[in-house]
Amino acid sequence: MAMHRPDHATHTASTAHLDDRVQYLVVGDETSLGALEAELALLPLCARGRVFVEVADASQIVPLASPLRMTVTWLPRSRRSGRPGTGEQCAPGEAAVRAVRAWCDEMLCDGPGATRAVVAGGFTLAADVREHLAEVVGMPDDALTVLR
User: Fold this and answer.
1) How far apart are CA 79 and CA 54, in angstroms?
2) pLDDT tens digits for 65-95?
3) Directed axis angle between helix 123-131 and helix 94-107, to 10°?
4) What share of residues in the chain are helix, strand, coil (percent, to 5)?
5) Measured between alpha carbons, how far is 84 from 35 in angstroms, rounded to an integer?
6) What is d(CA 131, CA 147) in angstroms, rounded to the nearest whole number?
7) C-alpha distances in angstroms, 118 versus 4, 73, 78, 106, 109?
8) Distance between the two ends of the chain, CA-based, in angstroms?
9) Helix (H, G, I), strand (E, B) or coil at 34
10) Model pTM?
11) If we measure between CA atoms, which residue out of 64, 70, 71, 21 comes closest to residue 45?
């Protein structure tokens, strides 16, 4: 006798998924490395998510302790161009904002869910990331911390 297997829709509707857990987004620049390190130390050991750190160049990349399931991405401005088609150099805050927008498009396409964000760094970076997360993605204020 053949064993009945539930179809995918039934399975999906009745199964708890790991994606229902909180994920974290941590963003900063070279002016906020101390604050980023402190915030990462406060996260649960099992925290998962993404860390984007924008720096002027690769010489500013330093070891940054984070939970094992957090992916740290360094964004040296010296290796990136500015606004497309201008030939300009990458301005402070620009690389991190682009990275956050791309990450949100991929990871938060159905809305922010249980995502929590911490943003630190220069005014342009903090303001632009906060605006994108709050106004475009729809992240509630209580899930978004901007360090000043």
Assistant:
1) 11
2) 999 999 999 999 998 887 777 778 899 999 9
3) 20
4) 40, 20, 40
5) 31
6) 14
7) 47, 15, 24, 19, 19
8) 66
9) helix
10) 0.84
11) 70
